[in-house]
Design brief:
It comes from Pseudonocardia petroleophila. The protein is α+β, with helices and mostly antiparallel strands and about 100 residues long. The chain is built from three helices and four strands, in the order βαββαβα.
């Protein structure tokens, strides 16, 4: 089942670029969409769509958190930013069609 969420993060575009550099070019398994936008009040908002909650959790454990740790020099905050889960009523588009 498709899993989607938004997350507001208190970082700037430079730190975001360092994190994505640490992630490398290989796609995250199960990620269908990652959109990063600037919030009007500062910080960034992530909008993510995954094949499943399990794919998302595995990517955070295996790739995303280690990349954030490296980008921050091991000083990642002890608490994650709030995640707002989205109730997906429908999901369509090229990425989902390619999944078969």
């Amino acid at each position: 089942m498709v899993y989607a969420f938004t997350q507001d993060v208190p970082i700037d575009a430079d730190l975001y670029r360092r994190i994505t550099d640490e992630l490398g070019p290989e796609p995250l398994d199960g990620q269908l969409l990652h959109l990063c936008v600037r919030r009007p009040d500062g910080g960034l908002r992530y909008i993510d769509v995954w094949e499943s909650r399990e794919h998302c959790a595995r990517a955070f454990d295996e790739r995303i958190h280690p990349a954030v740790d490296r980008a921050l020099g091991g000083a990642r905050p002890s608490q994650e930013p709030v995640v707002t889960h989205l109730e997906v009523l429908d999901a369509s588009g090229a990425l989902l069609a390619a999944q078969g």
